[in-house]
Structures are given as structure tokens and as C-alpha cells.
Amino acid sequence: MSQPVPVPVPPISDPRLRDEESPILGGGIGDRLYQAAITFFALCIPLLLALIAIEIVVAAWPALREFGFGFLTSSEWDPVNDRYGALPAIYGTLVTSAMALIIATPLALGVAIFLAEFSPPRLRQPLAFLVDLLAAIPSVVYGLWGIKVLVPLLREHVMPFIADTLGLKVLPLFAGPKYGVSMFAAGIILAIMILPYISAVSREILLAVPRSQREAALALGATRWEMIWGAVLPYAKSGIIGGIILGLGRALGETMAVTLVIGNAPEISSSLFAPGYTMASQIANQFNEASGRMEPAALMALGFVLFTITLIVNGVARWLVWRVSRESRA
């Protein structure tokens, strides 16, 4: 049997199709200009972040040099004698953010699981839109609602119920007078504000879990809940944790709503019913009235601490979400 004769392929003669001259394949002047432009815009973001960090450090340097590590461990804030410490603000920030996560995480995960696994298709998008709409409400509106509605409700009904009816006033967490404005109120406001962020990220992560995970669990005889608990949630665990940490980053930096309901007292108290301060609220309250050389520097040092913590928290959250997304594409 005769072998087939290969048909020679003529060389490409059209110069428009050659790699070195094709604008599509990377050789055209337009493509090079476009690449340079988008590279410049991409570099602007880390450059802007670096400039912000440098500016904050330069402004905070007098306080950082004067107080050193003691700035983080001191509870004194005395503008008269130029003695400053960030511990009460750091404490208030951590307490209110932790309380917000404790309240918001179960609610947000419940919403995400319902929308991803149980919601009818015709209701999924409208319900998701309504939940995400919570993130669009301005912070000051949350604060005004907190002053007019939440604080009186806590002072007259919720706090007395927790302390007296349930008898929990013997615990340090719920001891002391019931002012309404408190770290407790700030934690509830923050929980409402971060709920849509945790819910949105968790929902997208759950929807990204491969269908084969669900089908394999159901094929082995698992119920729907067992399938979610044993197959879907473990696969999406890193991404869900990333969403929770992303919500934490949002809570750490919240300013206006917290300022209006936390009471703004630079003190450390074991009771959630006591007023307090966060780093963001202290900066917002005192920066315009700061005088001298050291007080503005101390507030900028407080801002540098908040900037560093928020940057680390958000970086970890983004990395966890990216890792889950990469695994789902593999």
C-alpha cells in the first residue's frame, strides 16, 4: 500500500500574521502602549499604599520615638502632660470586633447556606440582593439608628433582661450601670454592618464547591444536611474563614457608627455594658482638636497601629479566599 504524500504547507507570506508584527500576538505599538498603561495603573495601587504608610509613619514618628513599645501597653492619655497610651483604644477595638464576629458569623453562615443550598432559584437573587443591600447603607445612618432605636432599646429592655432577669449581673461581662451607650451597643452595630460581607463571600465560596462533592455524598446515602456538613463545608472551610476575617477587617476600621454608640471613654472595663473607645473612634473624636506637637503624633501612631492590623487581617483573608478559588478551578 502506497504511503500518503504529505502536502507541503506554504510559508505565511502576509506580514500582518507574523508574530513579530502582529498587534494581537504582542508585537504592535498599540499593544505595547496598552501593556505599559495597564502596568502603570497596576503599580499605582501598591505605590499609593506605600505612600500612605510612609506618610503615617513620618507623622507618627515623634510619638513612636518618645514612647516606643510602651505606647501599646500604657493606659494613660493625658494631653496636659503629653503622656499617651493606646491600650484602652486597642482593647475596645478588639472587644467590639470580637463581639461582632460572635453575633454575625452564625447569622451570615446561615444566610449563605440557605441561599446556596436551599433557596428556590427564583428567590435566590432577590434575597441575596436584599442581604447585600445592608452593605450599601452609610455608616452614619447606622449610627443614627443606633442612637435613636438601639441604645434606648438596650438601656430599657435588653440590658435589664440580661443582668436582672437572667441573673447574669454576677458575671463581670454584664456588671455595672446600664447606660445604653456601650461596647455592647457598638458590637451589635458592627455585627449588622459586617454580616453582608461575610454572607456574600461565604455564599460565593459555597457556590464554587464542585457539584461532584455534593453528588458523591448523596450517592453514599447522606441526607442533604449531612451532605452540606460533611462534604460542602469542609471543602469551603478556608474560604469561609477568609470571609470571616474579611468581616473582621471591616469591623476593625469602622468609625462613624461606633463613635456614636460606644460612649467614647478612654478606659478599660471588663463589662460590656461600660462605655469605651476604639482606635478609629478616638482618632475621629480628637484629631481636629489635637494641639501641640505630641498629641497629633500620638493619634497618628494610633492610626499606624490600626493601619497595620487592618492590612494584615485583610491580606490573610484575601489569601484564604484566593486559595479556595484556585482549588475549585483545579
Please describe what this structure looks like.
With about 325 residues, the protein is mainly α. It has a single domain, classed as MetI-like fold, CATH 1.10.3720.10. It is built from 12 helices and 2 strands, in the order ααββαααααααααα. It has helices at about 30-65, 70-75, 85-120, 120-135, 140-165, 185-210, 210-220, 225-235, 235-255, 255-260, 280-285, 295-330, and strands spanning about 75-80, 85. Strands 1-2 form a two-stranded antiparallel ribbon. Residues about 15-25 have low confidence and may be disordered.
What's the short story on this structure?
The protein is built from 12 helices and 2 strands; from the N terminus they run H-H-E-E-H-H-H-H-H-H-H-H-H-H.
The portion of residues forming beta strands comes to under 5%
Radius of gyration: 27 Å
Kindly name the structural category: mainly alpha
Shape: globular
Distance between the termini: 46 Å
What portion of residues is helical? 55-70%
CATH class: Mainly Alpha
Q: What is the number of helices?
A: 12
What's the multimeric state? single chain
SS elements, strand count:
2
Main pleated sheet: 2 strands, antiparallel
Q: CATH fold name, please?
A: MetI-like fold
Order of helices and strands: HHEEHHHHHHHHHH
Strand order of the largest sheet: 1-2
Average predicted confidence as pLDDT: 86
Low-confidence stretches: 16-26
The CATH architecture designation is Orthogonal Bundle
